[in-house]
Design brief:
The protein is mostly helical and 129 residues long. It is 55% helix and 0% strand.
């Protein structure tokens, strides 16, 4: 895939949604959406969110493809495998991706915690305190 337009087209075709249907669902003029798919226009983050809703996919997926968000560290292709599985509904994919992300966050290295050191002063010899 060469860009965000290709990714949108691929997601639209996988979801069996026509260009006209997506344009209506996303609230975007059909010619403008066509130009995005052909790589002639670059959509804004707000427009990507509208398109994601129309495609019933996460806006994060589109943001990442468009370079708005940096993709997280390598995940052995798990995200892509889940997104491309045609036996799962979009809702099932989102739930599984959410679970996967929560496990990854849980396993992220934690910054070292500061250790509290207790210091007691010994009174000088001969001090009655």
């Amino acid at each position: 895939m060469s860009g965000i337009g290709d990714y949108i087209r691929e997601q639209r075709e996988q979801g069996k949604i026509s260009l006209r249907q997506l344009a209506e669902q996303a609230g975007v003029p059909k010619p403008y959406l066509s130009q995005i798919e052909r790589g002639l226009r670059k959509p804004s983050a707000d427009l990507l969110q509208q398109i994601a809703k129309g495609l019933r996919i996460s806006s994060e997926a589109l943001y990442t493809q468009a370079g708005v968000l940096d993709d997280r560290p390598a995940d052995s292709g798990v995200r892509q495998a889940l997104r491309s599985d045609q036996d799962l509904s979009e809702r099932q994919k989102e739930v599984l991706l959410g679970i996967y992300e929560s496990f990854r966050r849980e396993n992220e290295p934690k910054p070292p915690r500061a250790e509290v050191i207790s210091v007691t002063r010994n009174p000088p010899p001969g001090d009655p305190s």
